[in-house]
Amino acid sequence: MALVEFFNVMHTRTRRDYVQRVTAHDKAECAAKAKQWGFDYWDGERQYGYGGYRYDGRWLPLAEKMARHYGLTAGSRVLDVGCGKAFLLFEFTRAVPGIEVAGLDISTYGIAHAKEEMRPFLTVGNATSLPYPDQSFDLVLSAGTLHNLYCYDLEKAIREIERVGRDAKLIMVESYRNEREKANLLYWQLTCESFYTPQEWQWWYQRCGYTGDWDFIYFE
Question: The domain containing residue 129 runs over which residues?
């Protein structure tokens, strides 16, 4: 297991007004709507989620970097747990021609409005019970998903990721390193249920027998 840093560079490109997030709208109402994982979360107003999550090619450099890091080649099998609209999975197919991909997400809306080329390879489902055989993927990726689970489901999901991966695995979650980042995370988040420091996340990974890598994004 190792800390890798793939996502924070992209994450920090977005400017966020943390205080406005909790003063301009009813934050509790916005969070409740976001957790329905429907139109409002993906393509509705910004206070409910992404504010319109559309393909723009931004994920290709990340897919290329990850493919190099994990030595992915034609025929490698990649699973994205919490794939959303599968934009990152699509970029893997551009970065490594001949790669095999699969994606799973709890959002029926997200899967239905995913990148058209990816839809045949996507499944609506829960990270706590992955419908794939043991050790069936060369890379299992979960980015920005597991922090949305309660602790009892978090353990199930980590163990499932470990089970279906035969080689590389990577989990990225939202975290905090100090009180300012903790406050900003609480202000900004809409769907989080697990709020942990990097050290606590590593405790979870060790507890669950996870042998893969991890990454974090912070709200500085």
Answer: 8-51+59-217
